[in-house]
Longin domain-containing protein
Amino acid sequence: MVKLTIVGRVSDGLPLAQGLRYQNDEENENFLCYKQQAEFILKEISRGALSPSKMTIHIDHYHCFNYLVENGHCFITLCDSSYPRKLAFHYLQDLQKEFEKFDIGLMEKITKPYSFVRFDGIIGNIRKQYIDTRTQANLSKLNANRGQDLDIIAKHMSEIIQKGPKSGEFHLQYWVCFC
């Protein structure tokens, strides 16, 4: 299941929008940590430390981040590890297509994190289409081009942390979440 989605600007690492999130009581405590991890990934992409335009980043046995970078914007989603990766990237591509409908000049004027609130509802609407992996539309997406494997790099978050900035509060702030 798609649990968290963040859309950000690559040029400066600013998170622009956040989708409505899935939470239950046991995940409330972890949500802030996952959000910080997503923001860390966005910052790493903006500083050029993560160069692939598509990547899966495994957090633990239960969750992974998938991200897509297109036209100067990054679309990141936190999913259950069991959620089909192909479907997660279809979700990100659908978000990217909807995002392109907005004025690029407007996006460049945003200076405060998460202030593109208009896109939050769109994220929620698209997310609803991807909740159930067994719908006919989602099964069709999974079965399309079955012979082709996804050409997407997968890494573990600990590898990214080790290659990240080695000093400063920014690095330490995110490292606490991974312990």
Summary: The chain has one domain: 2-142+150-178. Strands lie at 2-9, 15-18, 54-58, 63-70, 73-80, 153-156.
